[in-house]
Amino acid sequence: MASLKELRARIGSVKSTKKITSAMKMVAAAKLRRAQLHAEAARPYAAAMRRMLGELAGSMAGQDGLPQLLAGTGNDRVHLLIPITSDRGLAGGFNSNINRTTRLTIRRLQSEGKVVKLLPVGRKGYDYLSREYADLIVDHVIGVGGKEIPFSAASDLGAKVTALLEAGQFDVCTVIYNQFKNVMSQVPTPLQLIPLGLEEAEAKPDPNAAQYEFEPDEQVLLERLLPRNLQVQIYAALLESAAGEQGARMTAMDNATRNAGKAIDRLTQTYNRTRQANITNDLIEIISGAQAV
């Protein structure tokens, strides 16, 4: 049984931990609101851009000479995966869910005879993947997360992806990120960036949807808009991931604070019982000594 001194030290240590986790919870809650607003504001813009480009690409279906950002290389052999994680931990299963999804995707693609390459974003994903799949990593990005995510981060990442595509390093590019649902739920979501999915163009047209007339012609517009669309989709994924990170950290720190409180109660109870037992033993010794005299 631990001594009273050891129990006091343990209670003090847990109380200090509780103060830290409580403070981290409040900081995450303060950051979450802004990150959530940014992620929700980016969703309709990113969706509208994909829908518009899908309609534009649909009008050019079957033509030769389509940009690679739209049609890819025409092959499906080499896949580039971009998993987005955070640079910091203490966020529950936020990073491990992305790492698990990435690992399962790698195994599935390799079982189908595909070649997989990785471009991890975030320190936690890079550290994990560099241990298991170091030979698949072609580049990595660290330090994107923070109080604010500048659009330049998505532009730089888009430039890296475009350079790899032009160099013939991959055929299909997919980003894997945590889509923010609410504070308790972040869903690992794969989104194919290259070639651009044409589901919107192939689906049954919505009579209430906006109809676009293009000026100048489709080819010129695609050449100008496709690089921008790649940046926008990456930026939206980064914002979703940032909001999910703060939500996951807030939940994790709340659980840690509650568990610390329960641990303090158990240790305090043990301390009081031990103290009472020591007092009882001392009284028994005193009484026994007095009776012996």
Automatic annotation (TrEMBL):
Record localization: Cell membrane; Membrane
Topology term for the membrane: Peripheral membrane protein
Keywords: ATP synthesis, Cell membrane, CF(1), Hydrogen ion transport, Ion transport, Membrane, Transport
Gene Ontology biological-process entries: proton motive force-driven plasma membrane ATP synthesis
Molecular function in Gene Ontology: ATP binding; proton-transporting ATP synthase activity, rotational mechanism
GO cellular component terms given for this protein: plasma membrane; proton-transporting ATP synthase complex
Origin superkingdom: Bacteria
Cited InterPro entries: ATP_synth_F1_ATPase_gsu (IPR035968), ATP_synth_F1_gsu (IPR000131)
Subunit: F-type ATPases have 2 components, CF(1) - the catalytic core - and CF(0) - the membrane proton channel. CF(1) has five subunits: alpha(3), beta(3), gamma(1), delta(1), epsilon(1). CF(0) has three main subunits: a, b and c.
Function: Produces ATP from ADP in the presence of a proton gradient across the membrane. The gamma chain is believed to be important in regulating ATPase activity and the flow of protons through the CF(0) complex.
Family classification: Belongs to the ATPase gamma chain family.
Record's protein name: ATP synthase gamma chain
Gene it is expressed from: atpG
